[in-house]
Amino acid sequence: MGSCLSGASSAPSSQNNTHYYYESPYKFYNNNTHDSNPELRLHRIPERIFLNGSSPYSSLFSKQGSKGINQDAMLLWENFGSMDDCVFCGVFDGHGQYGHVVAKKVRDAFPLKIMNEWNSHRGGDGNKNNDNNNNNKNYNHFKMMRESFVKASKSMDRELKQQHSMDSYGSGTTAVNLIKKGQELVIANVGDSRAVLGTRDPDGSLIALQLTTDLKPNLPREAERIMMCKGRVFALENEGIARLWLPNVDSPGLAMARAFGDFCLKDFGLISIPEVSYRRLTDQDQFVVLATDGIWDVMSNEQVVNIVASAPRSSAAKLLVESAVQAWRTKLPSSKPDDCSAICLFFHPQGNSSPNTNTSIVTGSRESTYKTKQKHQ
N or C: which end of the chain has fewer CB within 10 A? Predict the structure, then answer.
């Protein structure tokens, strides 16, 4: 994302009690394969898609903008943690000279850190609680998930800081991640990428519901933290975009208040702690779209949901990205298009319909577990 550098958690109230079992992420590194490259072994996991592609329940697409190398990264991992009904999704929008490197590093390492945090909770209160109050059990589970995201984010930043092979002092990435387990969604947001839900209102009309907040520097709670840390927030006269600056130098001008990396600003209000939220899915919830700001800068939530709902499932993300690229040309003809990346995750089997809907496209039935066979591209 060339443009990002200048020239509260909600808890569940679910009635369902779910037990979680996790498989060690280190199995992906400690095997007897002749391939000594752990990154290549990770990329060969069959349920893990990180390039343009699709599965029966998902569609992914990324397109380079006109500002240089594509600094976006994305990941969809079905059967996450070796659980049939668990999916991890994430989009990562890099910025700075080495933003593409940082984004890919977070894409590959962050999910494993989440699994590692889950394993640290195995056998803890989350699985041994005999309390008959399902609300308390599910709240405790959400609390564990939130802590896992926060600890994994801190660990991720520490690892980036120690990586001498990449310069993350002035480069970084956003990240919006989602874990779907059965009917539960947990969303963790760092930066200004966005998650939007396509759902139906009581009349059966498809509507857009934004699940994350764009964590910009001028958001009041973000600006307050930045100013307390002596950072500065202002927009250049010829641009109008609020940016985060060092105390005494008009640099680097970061267009978000949270990010991985960017260690030049970590003492001045920039943080990598995610904003984590929860949603219990219903039959009316159809799909979720995760996308980088190259899409949201030129398209509304409603436009995005309508495009995805009317597209063939396998090409939904591609059509969305292509629509955003066209919108850049028509709405901002004097600007260079940003990188655009999107993941569409569908909740129901294709072709099924639910009651009280006014369209047969991407309509819902009961939850179906993920048993997907797919190919990497």
Answer: C
- Res. 40: pLDDT tops 90: no
Instruction: Kindly report the pTM of this predicted structure.
Output: 0.84
Tokens representing residue 340 in the block: 């655009």
For the chain, which residues make up each domain, given as ranges? 2-7+42-346
- Distance (Å, rounded) from C-alpha 251 to C-alpha 11? 37
Under CATH, to which class is 2-7+42-346 assigned?
alpha beta
Contacts of 41 (CB under 8 A, 6+ apart): 28, 29, 31, 33, 35
C-alpha span between 154 and 190 (Å, rounded): 12
Where are any strands of DSSP class E within the chain? 48-49, 53-55, 58-63, 72-78, 86-95, 172-173, 175-181, 184-190, 194-200, 206-210, 232-235, 242-245, 252-254, 260-261, 275-280, 285-291, 340-346
- Supply 343's token pair: 């993941």
pLDDT tens, 281-302? 999 999 999 999 999 999 999 9
Question: Is the alpha carbon torsion for 314, 95, 195, 126 positive or negative?
Answer: positive
